[in-house]
Structures are given as structure tokens and as C-alpha cells.
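Ligand-bound model needed. pyridoxal-5'-phosphate.
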Amino acid sequence: MKNEFSLDKLLRDNIRNLKPYSSARDEFSGEAAVFLDANENPFNEPFNRYPDPQQKKLKAKIAALKNVGTEAIFLGNGSDEAIDLVFRAFCNPGIDNIVSIVPTYGMYNVAANINDVQVSEVELNEDFTLSAQRVLEASDEYTKLIFLCSPNNPTGNALDAEEIKKILNETKALVILDEAYIDFCPEKSMLAELTAFPNLIVLQTFSKAWGMAGIRLGMAFASAEIITILNHIKYPYNINILTQLKAIELLKLEEEQADWVKLLIDERKKLATKLANLPFVEKVYPSDSNFLLIKTHDAAGIYNYLVDEKIIIRDRSKVILCAGCLRISIGSPLENQQLMETLQALL
Ligand SMILES: *Cc1c(COP(=O)(O)O)cnc(C)c1O
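Prediction:
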């Protein structure tokens, strides 16, 4: 079945008719000797100046890194900004709906609730695999967005590419594929499929593999048409100067980043084996990410014990399909060793 995708039909009327704010830096962005156009203070360089609203230098670096055109990149104050913006661009409050999987990252539901948009939740299979058929069946004529997360949080596994493509092929909605953890399994990214699927938005972030959670920088990749819409509705100066400068500086550490990722994957494998040997650990789920989900006999007990020992992990035992489950981020070798020694002391 062909999807007859139409971006224009998905767009809210008010956004289609929007005349976006035009800043001083939008109207003149070239080189000049004297800038007297934005009521800035002439002192305290470089922080006295408004940041580049289009983040051109940073986007050029990201374009080279990700092998996409700059017109296919949106940068946000964390991935959370892009998540909120797609609701504001496409979902009429109280009328439209989205489809998302369960369990998954909590922000999609929060953003839906804030924007007064109904969520149709589709459970993953017992083994956390995705059923494209059930996602498609949960959609109706008011479904504007379908949220998928691969590798998925908190389950850790990457979703099957064929199932994702089936959804992309058969839905008229936009598919937001959150690849926050993709640097830990780059071969599973769908970024190269952007040109094949006009209804695909891929989210990535600097918060995980790049070690930049504190500077708040998220990326959305999509068609130039979709990126233009997001740029029209974002705050004009959404990425501040400190973040833009720091990201450009840190992007030079490509080799270090690759070393971190390799080490974390190696640590994840070691930790998975050790955790599986603990008698109170029933199962260590396979992971394509920088964390492990484990099923235990007493999630709350283990969680509270670790808190008392000043080690904080995430209790996910109340989440659907995750009874007894704890989520553990992979730390430094020393931190992982401390975790294991503390857990072994429970025996
Ligand atoms: C951590 C995480 C993010 C990152 O969000 P930022 O706002 O970019 O820090 C996005 N999606 C998922 C699924 C995550 O787990």
C-alpha cells in the first residue's frame, strides 16, 4: 500500500499561515565592521552578541559528521525541543492524536499531554520487538505523529529496520524515530534513509555518546520542508553562544568520542556477564545502547540498598512489560566495579 504522504495536509492551519519572527541577525548575517542593528551592548565580547539563529558554523560541522546537507538539520535545546515543536507544528490540540510504543521514553507522552493531544499506546512484544502491523492498526485519520525509539529506552534494544520501514511506507503520518543511543550501534541508523522517506524525522543528541548532556544540544534530521517548518516556530535564538562554541570545540574530539563509545560497549559486555551471574538477577536484556535493563526478584529492595550505598540506578519495575526491572547506565570502569562489588556484597 502506498501512503500518499502530504506534509501540507498534516500541517496545522495556523502554522501554514504563520509569518515567522525575523530577527536582526536573520535580516543581516554577513561580515561587517560595525553592528548597530540589534540593540546589543558593545562591551563583553563575544557574549554581548546574539547567537546565530541558524547555527551555520555548527551545522556545517554536523553535516560533515553525519553526511547530510545542512538544510536537513534542525538544532534544538536538547531533543526535547524538537519533540515539543513537532506537536506544535502538526497536532491540533483536542483533535489530533499520536501513536507511540510502550514501554518507551517518557517525554513523548509528556509533550502530548502539554499540547492536549491524545496518545494511542501500542505495547511492544514480550521480547521488546516492534509490531508494525499493530502500530498501523492503532492509527486513524487524526493520527499526525508516530513515535518510535531505536535503540529504545528503557529496553535497550534497537527496533527492527524492516518493521520501521513498513510503518514509514504505509502511514500518512510523520514518523519520529528517536536515535538518542544510535552511536552505540551506528550500523542500525536510519539516517541514510531520509531521502527515501519524506515522512521520516530522525532525532539524535549530543547528550549520550558525545558526553555533552550539560550543554543541551539535540538534532532533528528530515526533509528541507520539515526543517523549514521547525525553524519557523522555534525561539529565534534557541541555541545560545556558549553551547554553539562548546559543541564546535568538542566536535574536534572525534577520536576520543570513538574511544569512549568503544570502552563503554566493552564495559557493557563485561557488566552484562557479571550481572547475569548474580542469583537475584533473572535476566539481562540484550542492549544496543549505553545501559542495561535487568530483571530481578526484588527491584525495589535492590534499588533502595544501592541508594543507601550511594549508588543510584533507575527503578523501572512499575513500567509496563518491565516488572522487576532496573535500568543501569554504563559508567567508568571504576564506577562499574563499585557497582558490582556492592551488589556482590548482598550475597
Ligand atoms: C536521553 C534521551 C534523549 C536525550 O534528550 P536530550 O534532550 O537531547 O538530552 C532523547 N531520547 C531518548 C530516548 C533518551 O533516552
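The chain has a mean pLDDT of 96.
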